[in-house]
User: What shape does this take?
Amino acid sequence: MELFDRLERRELDKAILVHVDFHNEADREELDEFYELVDSAGAEICQLITAKRHTPDPKYFVGKGKAEEIQQAVQLHDADVVIVNHALTPAQERNLSNYLDCQVLDRVGLILDIFAQRARSHEGKLQVELAQLKRMSTRLVRGWSHLDRQGGIGARGPGETQLETDRRLVQARIKQLESRIEKVRKQRDLGRRARKRSELPTITIVGYTNAGKSTLFNHMTAAGVYAENRLFATLDSTLRRVHLPGAGPVIFADTVGFIRHIPHDLVTAFRSTLEETREASLLIHLVDAADPHRDEKIQDVIEVIDEVGASEVPQLMVFNKIDKLEPKMEPKVDCDDHGVPQRVWVSAVSGEGINLLMEAVASFFKGHFHTVALTLDVAAAKKRAQLYQLGTILEEGFDEFGNSHFKMHLTDQEWNEVKQWKELLEAKELV
Assistant: This one.
């Protein structure tokens, strides 16, 4: 049997959940978020077992007594897997699995399992597999004692153990995946350089998972990206060119959602995707306004933004799901003393406040505009229609000959393009 057939992800069926409440705030995980992660993975929850500890037990993480309680629950429900809402060391995971005679999955493994289910693009699948194999490489154990020594007639020496064979195969696959992802990263770099040459601003939507990024992205771009009320509903970044009234053509980018204590291997594996964040002209930091832990999650996202080197990129804070607030809040924009938008309150589901958000985003790029007066030939119907797809039209009229007169805002690129039109009878920049 091939190694990667043996390491294939198994579906989670009946699950026993284990949650430990640590005294140290930095070690704590949210129980509600744990339930959402398990639901996203598709497991059937049989029982939740909780514990309180000052520090993790070095052998079983939860201690021998609590491990016995978990063992009884596994036998009672005939459970397939025990999911622990914390990161386990390889030794703790192995010891628990042997003691419980059951598959044990920690928080990191659970997130990786969800990513494996949700990745759709070629790049996303490569990134998830790389993160999974890097994790597996630290957890391979000697399990095939009857095949410990390979070799036979004519073999020199005892050969290699099955564990050594597994490690060699995993490392070879990791190297192959890293090479493929590096090629994808270079392709992304070419795309980013092309967008920079075209001087198109990029607005990247970031935020905690399930804050509503894909729903908002769909409203702003009509992209039709898959959106669902689940953690990590979408993983693959999506780019769309949009004409933004008052700002001209821009690129909107949707990214993978962030989460507290995001596995380091995932940050590394998704580097090429997260680089869209670092290279953005503006970050829309989307927040679930109705989340009771929103302040902590805002800080978690800021930490990931810092980790990927995007802390210097301007940010616009957008509070989503105002339809769930009590009392109900109306859409609004909060500005600083200089009139620069700082916070926008919207509902991506109902579309309330989306126009305010688009105006706020446009305000960040208004300095790049020319106010111009144009006259188009009466026969230039196609060019006249094209002007409606370019900048913002301030005034429009016709002269006695049927020629079209426009006063409008155009970006540098648009202004340089329009000036070359042979159908243009007159073009001048207004002060």
Notes: The chain has a mean pLDDT of 79. The longest strand covers residues 44-53.
